[in-house]
Amino acid sequence: MDTIALKIPDELLNKSSKLAASLKMPRAEYIRIAIIRMNNRTAARLRAKRLAEVSKRVREESMKVNAEFAAIERDPDA
Questions:
Q1: 66 vs 21: CA distance, rounded Å
Q2: Residue 74's Cα: distance from chain center in Å?
Q3: How far apart, in Å, are the Cα atoms of 64 and each of 46, 52, 54, 58, 59?
Q4: pTM for the predicted model, two decimal places
Q5: How far apart are CA 57 and CA 37, in angstroms?
Q6: Domain boundaries, the chain
Q7: Mean pLDDT within 28-52
Q8: Does position 69 have pLDDT exceeding 70, yes or no?
Q9: What gap in Å lies between CA 14 and CA 6, rounded to an integer?
Q10: Residues in Cβ contact with 45 at an 8 Å cutoff, skipping those fewer than 6 apart
Q11: For residue 11, what pLDDT band results from cuts at 50, 70 and 90?
């Protein structure tokens, strides 16, 4: 496991320390859990954004295919 050094405002550190203590866990574990949760939330947002982009492209292609089918239905000999 690697070690990092962080500079964070005293108020944030104090609040984190108090909350970690109220949960009877080490402050480092509390901060690790916070980072894991943020990583998971960020990854989910990025997946959702990517899915929306891909869905839009698929929708656009579907509209083109639908237009081609409509043209064939209007004039099967075309």
A1: 61
A2: 44
A3: 28, 19, 16, 10, 9
A4: 0.68
A5: 30
A6: 10-74
A7: 96
A8: yes
A9: 14
A10: none
A11: very high
